[in-house]
């Protein structure tokens, strides 16, 4: 029989966070091996539960959650997102500017599908959260990666951004706080990105899902708060700050200069209506989450669990010969660099396979985040301190053996 092949649209789509190395890990688990998973920010899997008031509110409202809602979402949670945008100093947001989705991921894809034609370009950071690159490609666009500079704490290289703008460039993605690097962008840098967008009439897509997962007293500025004459599409949700990944509750805010974007907004409304609505139980968690006690502050404060684990991971990784790390200011990840002379890696996916096979530790290779060189990997520091120390100890042992095998 004639083989049934996947769509050609998927030829350039990649999401290695749940890719071939994870498939191998599942096979090993089926064989009885215990795998330490440092590959994904699935917070509940590490014993970090959502605030109880969110859970209880969803339980109480579940009997009334069986029907469709408005395609953009229920009034009360959307209104709470409007209030949140006011707290973040994003001007002029009304309830009609708020879209609720099955996590921010669905809304990211929707925002790009509504915009892009074949050949349109979107500037995406390198390294990036790979959903962005994949969604641009799947929408018919071309992802163009601008470099984030490790030597400057993984901040975007503004000159590289300017060099890569063409007549086909439609927008620029800003992931802040950043996944996978944990970088937090200062106001001065954000202001310069806004100015570039202004000069070239670009849409700014702001992925701010970790805006409360901040360490060492740092604060976050929403880039959409810095101008009202540029179009901003901002994304956030409950997955990370509220440890509610499985609830699939996210939101998208359209703000700034909407005068020339009526047709694009009509496209967003069309796509929003086509999926009928996002899941209602997840919507019901948003108002309680945003208005309740912000327990994430306890986790990221000095002595809090996430802060302790970040500090431990940083300490242990930087003690390994040939490993350097920029200490994260936000998010849940580290993006260590391996010295190319000590660890001559030609294929970092194969490197991840070997680490998995030898030490039962699952990480994601750096090229999975569209980093150009096979010299980085990402790990989450979500496991408790004992498990984290065990995992990094296994990585250190593997690297010692790897170095001996490849530098003789």
What integer value in Å does the Rg equal? 21 Å
The H-and-E topology, N to C, reads as HEHHEHEHEEHEHEEEHHHHEEEHEEEH
Structural class: alpha/beta
Query: Helix tally?
Result: 13
> Rough shape?
globular
- Percent of residues in β-strands: 15-25%
User: Low-confidence stretches at least 5 residues in length (pLDDT < 50)?
Assistant: none
Report mean pLDDT, rounded to a whole number. 93
Distance between the termini: 51 Å
Largest sheet: 8 strands, mixed
Order of strands in the sheet with most strands = 2-9-8-7-6-3-4-5
Secondary structure: helix percent = 25-40%
Strands, total number:
15
Q: In short, what is this structure?
A:
By secondary structure, this protein is α/β, with parallel strands linked by helices. 37% of the residues lie in helices and 15% in strands.
List keywords for this structure.
408 residues; three-stranded antiparallel β-sheet
């Amino acid at each position: 029989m004639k083989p049934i092949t996947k769509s050609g649209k998927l030829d350039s789509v990649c999401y290695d966070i749940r890719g071939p190395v994870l498939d191998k890990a599942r096979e090993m688990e089926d064989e009885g091996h215990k795998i330490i998973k440092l590959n994904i920010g699935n917070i509940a899997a590490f014993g970090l539960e959502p605030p109880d008031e969110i859970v209880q509110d969803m339980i109480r409202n579940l009997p009334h959650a069986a029907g469709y809602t408005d395609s953009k979402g229920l009034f009360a949670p959307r209104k709470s997102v409007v209030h949140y945008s006011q707290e973040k100093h994003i001007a002029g947001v009304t309830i009609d500017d708020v879209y609720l989705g099955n996590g921010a991921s669905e809304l990211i894809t929707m925002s790009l599908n509504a915009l892009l034609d074949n050949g349109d370009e979107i500037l995406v950071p390198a390294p990036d959260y790979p959903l962005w690159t994949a969604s641009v490609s799947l929408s018919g666009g071309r992802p163009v990666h601008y470099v984030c500079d490790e030597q400057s704490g993984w901040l975007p290289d503004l000159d590289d951004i300017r060099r890569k703008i063409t007549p086909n460039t439609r927008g620029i993605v800003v992931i802040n706080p950043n996944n996978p690097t944990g970088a937090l962008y200062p106001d001065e840098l954000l202001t310069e990105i806004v100015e570039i967008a202004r000069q070239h009439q670009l849409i700014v897509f702001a992925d701010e899902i970790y805006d409360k997962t901040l360490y060492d007293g740092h604060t976050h500025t929403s880039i959409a708060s810095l101008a009202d004459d540029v179009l901003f599409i901002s994304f956030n949700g409950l997955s990370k700050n509220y440890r509610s990944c499985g609830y699939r509750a996210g939101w998208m805010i359209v703000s700034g200069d909407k005068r020339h974007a009526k047709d694009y907004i009509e496209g967003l409304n069309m796509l929003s209506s086509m999926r009928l609505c996002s899941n209602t139980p997840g919507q019901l968690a948003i108002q309680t989450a945003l208005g309740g006690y912000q327990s994430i502050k306890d986790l990221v404060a000095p002595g809090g669990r996430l802060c302790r684990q970040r500090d431990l991971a940083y300490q242990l990784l930087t003690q390994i010969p040939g490993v350097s790390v920029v200490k994260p200011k936000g998010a849940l990840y580290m993006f260590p660099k391996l010295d190319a002379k000590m660890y001559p890696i030609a294929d970092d996916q194969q490197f991840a396979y070997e680490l998995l096979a030898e030490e039962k530790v699952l990480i994601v290779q750096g090229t999975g985040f569209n980093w150009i060189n096979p010299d980085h990997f990402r790990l989450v520091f979500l496991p408790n301190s004992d498990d984290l120390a065990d995992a990094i100890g296994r990585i250190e042992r593997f690297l010692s053996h790897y170095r001996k095998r490849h530098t003789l």
